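Schema walk-through. Below, the input block comes first and the output block second. Nothing else is stored per chain. Lengths vary across the set, and this one has 163 residues.
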Amino acid sequence: MMGLPLYPDLPIPTWKEFCDDYKPHFFNSSGEGKGRDYIIITNSNEEVGTIRYDALDKKKGGVVLDLWMRATKYCGFGFGGDALNTLCDYLHQRYGVTNFVISPSGRNKQAIASYQKCGFKCVSKPSKEIQKKDFGISACADNIIMIKKVSHRPTLGKTPCNH
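--- output ---
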């Protein structure tokens, strides 16, 4: 979902750009409580994607999530949905997060459908400037904001997207 031919407005980042976006704390325990990245691994021990949280606001109970699958051949099996629900459950139990934000490109219909299955609702298609100001994100001009609100205490491992 980056670069040509479908995403000319979202070029693949250089190594420097990647490092500027993904600080070391995303990949070690120092990121716990502020932002972390996790590898999505199947039961057969295959790495199929990555999921992260960022901009954790414990006072407001909000967080921004990001999910990337390694390749389209890994989509459609529920790996992303399971990871998304597991991370939401963890952040809710550990930090009291009740508002989860994810912002896929409007062109990524498969991701949008998967997020909806996991309880996310499309709330807006803001400009890149509003995305940056209100959510700290602004990848694509056609990004949509999807939010999942929870108020109950979930049980880890019990997710509606399990397959």
